[in-house]
């Protein structure tokens, strides 16, 4: 027996992270068991989400209707920036409620074996962003390199630290403290550890 729409949807769901063929099948049969109206609402929510949520042209974080709630918030501290790997890391740090500065999302980490070099990350955007603020006389005073304490995250922070220090020697660059388990990720770090790592941040080159 062949049910093309069913198989097509299972294929599509199985492309989701962490979802294999089996789980995809379960999701599809769950949808089939739901009232049509509920499924229509779900489809609508997914579409609205995709259309209205995008990336901020400045920080690279999530934006809503092309407006980034962090960059446009006049009450936030402009003198300290957190530089993170992914948009989801902004959410992790925001959840701590301890950081009221700006962000810059790199969009990944350096991974030469996977073909990710400096040009594939938003490093030039970072340098340009700081440069133009410097021309306006309002450069940040501190950049916190908040990449994950993984091999690639550390290498990326080391590389960035050198570039930032040579381009902007007046700006202090710091790294999150070692509270986060080595090899761990911000996303899965408990709140108190993340708060401690932010508070006890240290210079990049010790
Ligand atoms: Zn922004």
Q: Could you describe the 3D structure shown?
A:
The protein is of the alpha/beta class and 206 residues long. Helices cover 43% and strands 12% of the residues. The protein is built from 7 helices and 7 strands. Strands 4-3-5-6-7 form a 5-stranded mixed β-sheet. α6 links the parallel β5 and β6. α1 packs across α2 and α4 crosses α7. The longest helix has 17 residues. It is elongated, with a radius of gyration of 20 Å. The termini are far apart. The model has no long low-confidence stretch (mean pLDDT 91). The structure holds zinc ion.
Total helical elements = 7
Main-sheet strand order equals: 4-3-5-6-7
Radius of gyration: 20 Å
Q: Specify the biggest β-sheet.
A: 5 strands, mixed
The structure class reads alpha/beta
Order of helices and strands: HHHEEEHEHEHEHE
Q: Give the helix proportion (percent range).
A: 40-55%
Overall 3D geometry?
elongated
Q: Please indicate the percent range of residues in DSSP E strands (runs of 2 or more).
A: 5-15%
How many distinct beta strands? 7
Distance between the termini: 66 Å
Low-confidence regions: none
List keywords for this structure.
alpha/beta; binds zinc ion; 206 residues; five-stranded mixed sheet; 7 helices; 43% helix; elongated
Question: Short summary of the structure?
Answer:
With about 210 residues, the chain is an alpha/beta fold. It has helices at about 5-15, 20-35, 35-50, 85-95, 125-135, 150-165, 190-200; strands spanning about 55, 60-65, 80-85, 100-105, 140-145, 170-175, 200-205. The strands form two sheets. It has a five-stranded mixed β-sheet. The chain has a two-stranded antiparallel ribbon with strand order 1-2.
